[in-house]
Write a structure and sequence with these properties.
InterPro entries: DUF6482 (IPR045508). A hairpin with a 2-residue loop joins β3 and β4. The protein contains 3 helices and 7 strands. The two termini are about 25 Å apart. The radius of gyration is 14 Å and the shape is globular. By secondary structure, the protein is of the alpha/beta class. The chain has one domain.
Length: about 100
């Protein structure tokens, strides 16, 4: 499920903006609102993606959010043949406002 940028502009408070690092330089955005995480889509319904993290941050420059983070999962364990972990190896790094 996703939420559009237009719908986000109607919301008075966004808890967290999450920029997911998918690949070398491919990023996708989700938001957390009242404990629910949803991906963000553009006016055509396509998920918001970019090869430039700063471009994605600009979409949120005038929206009311508490914090913005970059989230990354490492595939290192899988690449070296380690067993699957019980817990996630996701890492979140806080980002400042653009």
């Amino acid at each position: 499920m996703s939420i559009s940028l237009q719908q986000l502009r109607q919301i008075s408070h966004i808890d967290k903006v999450i920029i997911h690092s998918l690949d070398c330089s491919l990023y996708q955005v989700s938001v957390e609102i009242q404990g629910n995480e949803e991906y963000v889509s553009d006016h055509q319904g396509h998920l918001l993606r970019s090869h430039n993290k700063l471009n994605l941050q600009e979409y949120f420059s005038d929206l009311p959010y508490d914090r913005m983070v970059l989230r990354q999962s490492s595939a290192y364990d899988e690449m070296v043949g380690q067993p699957q972990r019980q817990q996630s190896n996701e890492m979140e790094v806080s980002l400042g406002k653009p």
